[in-house]
Amino acid sequence: MNSNELRRKFINFFKSKGHAVVPSSSLVPDDPSVLLTTAGMQQFKKYFTGELDAQKDFGSKNTTSIQKSFRTSDIDEVGDDTHDTFFEMLGNFSFGGYFKKEAIEYAHDFLTRELGLEIDYVTVFEGDKEVPADTESEEIWRSLGVINIKRLGRADNFWGPTGVEGPCGPTTEIFMKNLKSEVWNLVFNQYYLHPDGFLEKLKTPGADTGMGLERLATVAQKKRNIFETDLFAPLLALIDEGKPERVKRIIADHGRAVSFLISDGVIPSNKGAGYVLRRLMRRMIVHGTEFEKLFAKVVEIYGETYKELNLKQILQEFEKENSKFQKTLKSGLRELGKLEKIDAASGFKLYETYGLPFEILKDAEISGDKAKGLNREDFEKEFAKHQEKSRAGAEKKFGGHGLLLDTGELKAVDERELKIVTRLHTATHLMQAALREVLGPEVKQNGSDITAERTRFDFFFSRKVTPEEIKKVEDLVNKKIAEDLPVSFVELPLEEAKLTGALYFSAQGRSASGGKAKYGSKVKVYYIGKDLETAWSREFCGGPHVSHTSEVGKFKILKEESASSGIRRIRAIVE
Q1: Is the alpha carbon torsion for 361, 362, 363, 367 positive or negative?
Q2: Which of 42, 258, 319, 321 has the most CB atoms around its CB within 10 Å?
Q3: 551 is in which domain, residue-wise?
Q4: Domains: count for the chain
C-alpha cells in the first residue's frame, strides 16, 4: 500500500464519517508561539478555544486534514531509524461534535478494518493529583477487544502547550506490532491551561488526533524503518552508495525538508525559519550529492499531493546558498582540522566566521571525536551572547531602544535590517495598490508582518489568486518601482484624512498585532506619486518608507495561499 493510497484511504474514511476535509496550511504558521507548523491541530487552535466556529467555517464540527509539519527538535537525531524533520501529520478533529468514544472507535476501525493492521498495545493516562485517571478511554479500548493497555503518567499521556497557555488534556497512544514508537496519538482536550498553571475545564471538550504518515507507511508496507518506505527509498537510491547509511538518511531527510520550506516561501537567513533552512542546506552541501536529481525526485514523489512544490524555485535558492557557502567552506574545514577539540566558544567562532552550523560541527564523519563534549545548549548560549553584544551595539548607536525598529508590523535589529524592512514596507504599499488594480476593490488589508527576510501580507479576497494575476501584480509593482515615483506623506485630522481616499483599517480589517486598528485625532497619509490627489497609492501609515520607489529594488512574490476562510496571504521579497 503506497503512501498515496494511505493518504486517500485516510481522507475518504473520515469524509465518510461526516468530517470536512481541510487542506494543509503552510509550514510558516500564523501562530507566534511556534517557529514552524509542528502539528495538524495548529491551524485549528482557535476552533478549540471557541474563538472561531467550525460549523460556520467548514459546515461541520468535525474536520480532517493531512498537514505538512516540521519539528526542529529532531534535527540532531536524524539518521537513526525513526527521526525526521519534515513529516506529514494525518489528523481528525472535533470541536464539540464527538469525544473519546467516537475518536477511539474511528482510530481502531481505520487501522484494523480499513488497513487490516494489528494493534500491539495502547497507553492511557494513569492520573495524578490534578487530573483523574482516564478510565473512560481504557474501558472503550477493552470494549473493542484491545486488552494490552499500559497506564502512564503526565510526561507520556497528557498533552499540553509548553510555556504557553492553551487547550490540553489526557491522551491515548496506539502502538503497532513492528514499530518501536507510537503510530497515532489521540488527544482529548478537556482543560484550558492558564499562564499561572491553573487547569480550567473546557465548556466544550474536543478531540485532536495525529498520526505520522511516515510511521504508518512503515507499518502498512511492512518495513523496518521509515527510510525503507516509498517516501524515502527513491531518494536514498540517488545518493552515493559509498556514503555511510546515516549520512544518506540525513541528505534524504534534509532534501525533503528544504524543498518544502523553500516552496512555502522560506529563504535562508541567520534567524527564525530562515536559520533552520540554512542549517539544513549547509549540512547537505558539506556531505555533497547530486542535488538537482534529489530535489527533482522529491517533487516527483510529492507533487501530486502538494502542487505548491516548485522545482525551479528550490534549485535557485539552493544554488544561491551553495555558491555563498562554498566561498568559506574550505577555509572553515581547514580551521576545524587544526583544532584538537571543539567546545562551545571555538564552535561558535567557526560558525560566526565560516558559517559552519552546529550540525556540521557535531557530525562524526566531519569532526571525528573533536566535538564529543559540544552540546547544543552551550552552543546556543554562545549564540545568545553574540546577539546580546550586537543588540547592545545597536542600542548604543541608536539611543538605547532595544530593537532598532519594532512597530508590531516591522522588526529590525540593526541598521542593515532597517534598510531592508524600509524597502519591503514601501513594496507592501505598492503591492496592495497593484492587487486592488488587478483584482478589484474587494481586496482589503487584514494585516502584515515585515522582517528583513520577507513581507507577509494578508488581505480579504474570496478566491485563490491565479498565477497569471500574481504575475500581473508583480509586473505592476516593478513598473512603479522603475518609474522612480516619489514617496511622501502629509499629516491630517482623522476625518479629513479619510476624505483623501487613502486606505485604512476599517472595522473589518485588523492591525498587525491582530486587534482592530486605532487611530488618533491626527494621522499620517503616505502617498506614492507626484501629489496626494493623483497618487497611485495612498494609505494611513506611520512609516518608515524610502524616498523614491527606485530604492525598493526588484520585487518578487514567493507564494500566494489561503490564510483562513476568506483571507489570502502573500509572501514577497525585494532583491
Answers
A1: positive
A2: 258
A3: 415-574
A4: 3
